[in-house]
């Protein structure tokens, strides 16, 4: 047969038919419009040259899908009615030097290149990360990877004595001893160490005297002392044996330490000091009596040191829990530091009355969080299902909610402009808006704040996205706990919450299909802020039920600690209770329910499709924990399996070699124990580099479902870790979730 005139054969992507391909094209176009909305990562305030107003400078990031990177840029805007400098770090992607830049308000002032022989990449991870200027802005202390250790060299004669620093085509470097790292997202990262650069000479020195077993982070300069030396305060995490995963895990013991800063030549000459390279440099442990201390901040007058503590997390073993805030009165006499009293500013809140402060849940401080009185900090904290802005008087302990108490939006402080606040506010159906906060009634005990909109092009979105979002509404629902027993604490008996997103113009009596979204952790929280991914899903015709089951952050310590030992039961029942709540209110159809979760949210999702196999028409999981008996031997946080399966006693039971009875317990608590009942078509999105819930967990479960004839789709992202957040991977992930749900419930 002559087919020379036949048209070209259209190649379909694997697994797609024409209808599904059309759905891909339609949804991907919409998802791109949501993806293009930028994020604000950081903000700074500069005084205008005329001294009248202020310029806000925002660090903006936006996914670049083609390059598979985040495009970063700086945008400035006039805000209203202190001059500072920026320290810009450009880490190398290979063995090139690190590149430092010092910027003033309008120009580059200095730049330095630091070779790999001095240190590796600077830590910019938001946890070990620490950059601090001294008082006269001549020195910067920072945290970077220690230099690469020497490795054995081999050539065609065998081992080469003395090694080699030169690149030699006739030899190669061996691997040397393997060193533990801090797990998820830190694979291949060397030990964080402390360095100081002199901005006049460009000389970099390592800080001496710190034990190798301490990983360093969050450095700040201490106020001047009575001696000749300057001192640095830093956070130290001890790791005598194994380093357990630290990302998202605040249960790793840590403390505050002080160490002498290195002297530079001019200083040494003035003081007529001899070479002190062999001198024993003392390191002071400032917080010996508390199991967790981090995020150190000195008051503007240097009279006290404030820090955050996750001791409730460390002491219970839960990976995250309710924070506490503490103060140390700072002495200029270094001999008094180790005996200084630790004062509780905000204790751990066990159970709050309705509408009252539920406890401190703070992920970070501003570089300068202080108002002009020198004792009031402005911080962001979770308050049930929202994020709010608080003022905290660290002398009296008074805590005030200063973002609007009648707002269900989430608020996050970006920077301070004197006694005014630059913040961002958003909701599940409202793109972020920059806000400017001013005190309007200073004389009253509880000062009232006024919040003004700041005109800014940062969060521009397309007319289509704006129109779709305007057709949506959200509310935060209180869900009563079912079957309250006498064994429950008061906090665990109180209602939990769910965020419900729906259309604001119901066209018929039929309900839109429902997506139940479940956060991971389990001790994290889904906030009432804007999420591009969830806004995309709700804009394609779904209602969202975003459940903050008991065990979530933001609801007090008793509610949080009610979950360890009961995973797979209490959290599952809370999700089912929330679903029944919206069905009973006529907001959801029991015939069109899907479920989506990642990590522990994936654990819950796979539990739900096994425990109630007829309830969900489709499911989607991202790096799910499906089999704790398998996970405990492969994860970077095996202690998590013990604590969540056994309760707080699991912290002391934990061993690297679990006995058979514990493996049996882990299996019984896992979704895989209910696998035989599963019918729900399920899509798996897996990161091949995940160290938290290694890919074997999701693959084992997916393969077992296929074996029993359940429809399964697996997408593997070869270069992604637990969060699957590389731009292309995040895009493809949520596009496939949208198409998968559309296939089964529309």
TrEMBL record:
It comes from the Eukaryota. Keywords: Cytoplasm, Hydrolase. This is acylaminoacyl-peptidase. GO terms for cellular component: cytoplasm. It catalyses: Cleavage of an N-acetyl or N-formyl amino acid from the N-terminus of a polypeptide. It comes from Fagus sylvatica. One of its GO terms (molecular function) is omega peptidase activity. Homotetramer. One of its GO terms (biological process) is proteolysis. Its EC number is 3.4.19.1. It is found in: Cytoplasm. Gene3D superfamilies: alpha/beta hydrolase, YVTN repeat-like/Quinoprotein amine dehydrogenase. Belongs to the peptidase S9C family. InterPro entries: AARE_N (IPR045550), AB_hydrolase_fold (IPR029058), Pept_S9_AS (IPR002471), Peptidase_S9_cat (IPR001375), WD40/YVTN_repeat-like_dom_sf (IPR015943). Pfam families: APEH_N, Peptidase_S9.
């Amino acid at each position: 047969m002559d087919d020379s005139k036949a048209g070209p054969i259209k190649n379909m992507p694997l697994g797609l038919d024409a209808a599904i391909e059309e759905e891909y094209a339609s949804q991907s176009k919409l998802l791109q419009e949501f993806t293009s909305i930028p994020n604000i990562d950081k903000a700074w305030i500069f005084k205008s040259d005329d001294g009248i107003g202020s310029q806000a400078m925002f660090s903006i990031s936006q996914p670049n899908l083609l390059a598979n990177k985040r495009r970063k840029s700086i945008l400035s805007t006039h805000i209203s009615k202190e001059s500072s400098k920026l320290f810009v770090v450009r880490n190398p992607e290979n063995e090139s030097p690190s590149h430092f830049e010092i910027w003033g308000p309008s120009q580059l002032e200095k730049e330095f290149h630091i070779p790999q022989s001095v240190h590796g990449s600077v830590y910019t991870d938001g946890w070990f990360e620490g950059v601090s200027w001294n008082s006269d802005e001549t020195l910067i202390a920072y945290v970077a990877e220690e230099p690469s250790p020497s490795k054995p060299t081999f050539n065609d004669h065998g081992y080469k004595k003395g090694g080699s620093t030169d690149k030699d085509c006739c030899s190669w470097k061996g691997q040397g001893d393997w060193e533990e790292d801090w797990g998820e997202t830190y694979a291949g990262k060397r030990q964080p160490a402390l360095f100081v650069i002199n901005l006049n000479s460009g000389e970099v020195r390592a800080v001496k005297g710190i034990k190798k077993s301490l990983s360093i982070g969050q450095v700040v300069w201490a106020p001047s002392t009575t001696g000749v030396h300057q001192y640095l305060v830093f956070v130290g995490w001890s790791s005598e044996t194994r380093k357990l995963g630290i990302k998202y895990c605040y249960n790793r013991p840590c403390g505050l330490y002080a160490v002498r800063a290195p002297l530079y030549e001019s200083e040494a000459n003035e003081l007529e000091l001899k070479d002190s390279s062999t001198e024993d440099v003392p390191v002071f442990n400032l917080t010996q009596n508390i199991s967790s201390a981090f995020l150190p901040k000195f008051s503007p007058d240097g009279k006290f040191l404030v820090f955050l503590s996750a001791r409730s997390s460390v002491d219970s073993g839960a990976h995250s829990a309710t924070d506490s805030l503490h103060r140390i009165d700072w002495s200029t006499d270094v001999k008094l530091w180790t005996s200084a009293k630790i004062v509780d500013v905000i204790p751990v809140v066990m159970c709050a009355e309705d509408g009252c402060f539920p406890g401190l849940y703070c992920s970070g401080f501003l570089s300068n969080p202080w108002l002009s009185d020198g004792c009031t900090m402005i911080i962001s904290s979770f308050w049930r299902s929202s994020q709010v802005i608080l003022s905290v008087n660290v002398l009296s302990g008074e805590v005030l909610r200063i973002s609007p108490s009648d707002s269900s939006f989430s608020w996050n402080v970006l920077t301070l402009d004197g006694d005014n606040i630059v913040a961002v506010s958003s909701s599940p159906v409202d793109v972020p808006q920059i806000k400017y906060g001013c005190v309007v009634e200073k004389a009253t005990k509880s000062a009232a704040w006024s919040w003004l909109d700041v005109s800014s092009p940062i969060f521009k979105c397309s007319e289509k996205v704006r129109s779709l979002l305007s057709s949506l509404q959200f509310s935060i629902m209180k869900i009563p706990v079912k079957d309250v027993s006498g064994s429950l604490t008061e906090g665990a008996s109180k209602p939990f919450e769910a965020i419900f997103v729906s259309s604001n113009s119901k066209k018929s009596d039929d309900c839109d299909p429902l997506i139940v979204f479940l956060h991971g952790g389990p001790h994290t929280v889904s906030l009432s802020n804007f999420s591009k991914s969830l806004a995309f899903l709700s804009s394609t015709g779904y209602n969202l039920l975003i459940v903050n089951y008991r065990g979530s952050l933001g609801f007090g310590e008793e509610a949080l600690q009610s979950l360890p030992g009961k995973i797979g039961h209490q959290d599952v029942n809370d999700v089912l209770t929330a679903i029944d709540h919206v069905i009973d209110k006529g907001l959801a159809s029991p015939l069109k329910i899907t479920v989506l979760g990642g990590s522990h949210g994936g654990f819950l999702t796979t539990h739900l499709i096994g425990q109630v196999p007829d309830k969900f028409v489709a499911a989607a999981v991202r790096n799910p924990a499906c089999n704790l008996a398998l996970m405990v031997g492969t994860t970077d946080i095996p202690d998590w399996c013990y604590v969540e399966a056994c309760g707080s006693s699991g912290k002391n039971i934990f061993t690297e070699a679990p006995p058979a009875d514990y493996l049996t317990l882990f299996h019984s608590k896992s979704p895989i124990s209910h696998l035989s009942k599963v019918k729900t078509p399920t899509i798996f999105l897996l990161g091949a580099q995940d160290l938290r819930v290694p890919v074997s967990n999701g693959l084992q479960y997916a393969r077992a479902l296929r074996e029993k004839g359940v429809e399964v789709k697996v997408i593997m992202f070869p270069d992604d870790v637990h969060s699957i957040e590389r731009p292309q991977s995040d895009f493809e992930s949520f596009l496939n979730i949208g198409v998968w749900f559309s296939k089964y419930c529309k």
